[in-house]
Hints:
heterodimer, A: mainly alpha, 3 helices, B: 521 residues, mainly alpha, Sodium/glucose cotransporter, 20 helices, 76% helix, globular
Amino acid sequence: MLFVYFGFILLTAFNKGAMGQTLVPGLSWGILLGAIVIVTAFVLTGLYVRWANNHYDPELRAIQKRAFAADAESPGGHS
Amino acid sequence: MNAAAVVQTSLGKPNAVATSFFFLFVLVTLSITYWAARRTKTTSEFFAAASRITAGQNGLALAGDYMSAASFLGIAGLVSLSGFDGLIYSVGFLVGWPLVMFLVAEPLRNLGKYTFSDVVAARLRQRPIRIAAALGSLSVVSFYLIAQMVGAGNLIKTLFGLSFETAVIVVGSVMILYVLFGGMIATTWVQIVKALLLLSGATLLAVMVLSKFDFSPLKLFAEAARVNGAGMLAPGKQVANPIDACSLGLALMLGTAGLPHILMRFYTVPDAQAARRSVFYATGIIGFFYLVTFILGFGASVLVGQKAIVSIDKGGNMAALLLAEVVGGHGLMGFISAVAFATILAVVAGLTLSGAAALSHDLWVSVVRKGDAPESEQLLVARVATGGLGVLAVVLGISFKGQNVAFMVGLAFAIAASANFPALVMSLLWRRFTTAGAVASMVVGNVSSVLLIALSSTVQVDILHKSAAIFPLKNPGIVSVPLAFIVGALVSVLAPAKADQDKFEEIQRRTILGAKPAAQK
């Protein structure tokens, strides 16, 4: 995300001409890329949520179970 | 299209529609507050709504906290006057959210109780961390509050024709009622109502604008470029200095992950999974909102005309409202005005609550009482702090009347990015981070961003009317954020503290696993 965003800012800052070029009347590269950055942010968080719900959480729950069970056997003992 | 004709506006004259919508909003939110007040008896309910807010509700509330009237009116205005440049701001305000998601949302939920200092202080020494972190939070909250209050005063003066002082006092007293009696439960619901109103208002307006362009944004952009010049679609003077653009970007991005009233929202959901989902919803809502705002800005530049917008307000802040009047008449403008007012009210309430949490939970309970204060006393202190902050906000709002406070939101973000964010991230990820390092990082981040803003052209040239500024950039982010990181790291390496490091594993474990479920105790 950092790269996407600063890529966008740097492109805007150093290559004004290119960002102002229009693809079709009314749509410049700058506007298209800006909108894409916004959508990317949303898609990235969405992908993360999916990954976390499908992979991270089940594994985490397994570890939790083991860890808390171990705690119960040796009270006060951590990790 | 015919710009000259629409300078005739009813803006500033008492608007019956706006007034009735506004009273309806206040009535509804105060009933919510009454309902919430009966459910607010413990500190956990007051500060975190007893962690019973769902992910969807919290997503809306996060978006509500984040979408201030400044971004609605300000960005729509900026886009209407300079086109593409406004998009840079929208993008900057949004891209912090994935970062919040990946770095802070879940650890925060697992580790903390009411404030972000809970997380930084988890394995470090409580008192110095709490003091430094509370100071950081309070400076962010105060600058943000001043900006919102002055903005509210001006906005209401323009919209309803009330005097500046009356407007500030009205906002202040209604906000105090919400927070004082309803705590986080009321504040959350006020945010949800406001977020829905703002979204539906902005969307309605955007659909009405697009209907004039065959529902094609491209036709709208092309028309804007034809009327106002091709510069509308290309980067302009806002990004004259690339380093400044990066600096602003850095502050906006990292600041989001350091704003106390946003971070506090993660404690209102039941678990880390809900925290994660709420960020996803918030990102979607905010992204959509900024895209809509962009359409509104362009719509205003064509349908209202730039000359007409500037003649009402030099900064273009009234563009969205003028647009509402052109496409929907008096009634729609009244509705949008009331939404803008409601927006300010809700954001101010969220800010005050997070300030009260820093004062009561961090300073009073953890520092003065060393973590040992009865529940009733904590709640009392929280309420006194709320009242105090509310009065302070009104006093500051009135004393900054007529001042140019636009830089203060930037300042709040810069402090959040440099004082709060580095310490938060290092304490979560870096084993060798120490108490001294954290305090040094927070203090340096805080002081350097305030100092650099004071020396920048925003204050020196625009407000003090000097010819040149000592610090060449408008936003201090690119200097103060790395500085806070470096100072924190240096102090930690030079003066290692074993006690601080020993607890890293234990805390890391809680960060990842979460607190032990009650059933398994």
